[in-house]
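Weekly sync, protein design subgroup
Attendees: M.S., D.O., the rotation student, P.L. (late)

Item 1: inverse folding check
M.S. brought a backbone from last month's batch and wanted to see whether the design step gives back something sensible before we order anything. D.O. pointed out we never logged the input encoding, so this time it goes straight into the notes. Structure tokens as presented (268 positions):
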């Protein structure tokens, strides 16, 4: 396999099922992986990582005992492994959007469906070479920056606002919009609450999309218009969820397209 780096690929495969492990080995050998170590459980994998640093760890997401998500969390916070920043890809049969979110929150670099094709694995290795995300160490999360998730799944896994990593900003936005909804149901909404919600919306969009070059005036105007639309729509809706659904759908599409565009730019 041709890589941006001249270092040969070395891999640690964490897979309890022999047939699945054999398939992963075959794929990695085809991609000219120079060394492949296979272990059956998370504890053995962590012990191995205290001695060696492979270029990639392929770990089953669903395993008896310590599963792949918990393995990833332990690895990222470990003080005994050689490198807590080693690239980790979780492999999961028929992943759903909860698996996607759990993989990102556990600190995985990516996720692949199982079984995966040779092309999917090749693209993943290339992405990990050329698009390695900044590593974050915070009180509540340790792992690659979640704003640029490299999760791949079989077919289209619809993403939620919660999937984009800006958890605190989203929480603040939802608190504001719930207050605005309650006010709209009872009376008119004061302008300061519209402004407050628009600012919270702008913060969420900026963090979730990871924007660095942004027209703040244009974004502010866009957010004010969206909040005004939400306010006008709210009185005719029975619940907050009904009122928020159109805005949720719009924001999810906006952020997803922005993230995809950024990833394409990096890959070019």
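Designed sequence read out in the meeting:
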């Amino acid at each position: 396999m041709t890589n941006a780096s001249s270092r040969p690929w070395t891999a640690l495969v964490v897979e309890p099922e022999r047939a699945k492990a054999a398939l992963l080995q075959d794929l990695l050998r085809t991609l000219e992986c120079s060394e492949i170590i296979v272990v059956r459980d998370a504890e053995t994998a962590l012990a191995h990582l205290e001695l060696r640093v492979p270029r990639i760890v392929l770990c089953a997401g669903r395993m008896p005992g310590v599963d792949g998500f918990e393995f990833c969390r332990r690895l990222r916070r470990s003080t005994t492994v050689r490198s807590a920043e080693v690239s980790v890809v979780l492999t999961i049969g028929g992943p759903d959007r909860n698996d996607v979110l759990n993989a990102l929150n556990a600190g995985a670099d990516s996720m692949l469906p199982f079984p995966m094709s040779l092309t999917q694995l090749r693209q993943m290795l290339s992405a990990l070479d050329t698009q390695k995300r900044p590593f974050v160490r915070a009180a509540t999360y340790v792992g690659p920056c979640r704003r640029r998730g490299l999760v791949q799944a079989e077919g289209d896994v619809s993403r939620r606002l919660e999937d984009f990593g800006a958890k605190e900003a989203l929480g603040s936005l939802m608190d504001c919009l719930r207050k605005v909804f309650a006010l709209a149901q009872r009376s008119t909404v004061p302008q300061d609450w519209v402004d407050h919600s628009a600012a919270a919306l702008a913060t969420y969009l900026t963090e979730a999309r990871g924007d660095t070059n942004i027209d703040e005036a244009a974004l502010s105007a866009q957010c004010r218009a969206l909040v005004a639309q939400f306010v006008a729509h709210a009185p005719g809706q029975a619940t907050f969820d009904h009122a928020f659904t159109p805005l949720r759908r719009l924001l999810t599409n906006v952020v997803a397209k922005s993230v995809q565009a950024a990833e394409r730019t990096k890959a070019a």
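Discussion: Residues 183 and 190 are 8 Å apart (CA to CA). The first strand starts at residue 10 and ends at 14.
Action: P.L. to compare against the previous round before Friday.
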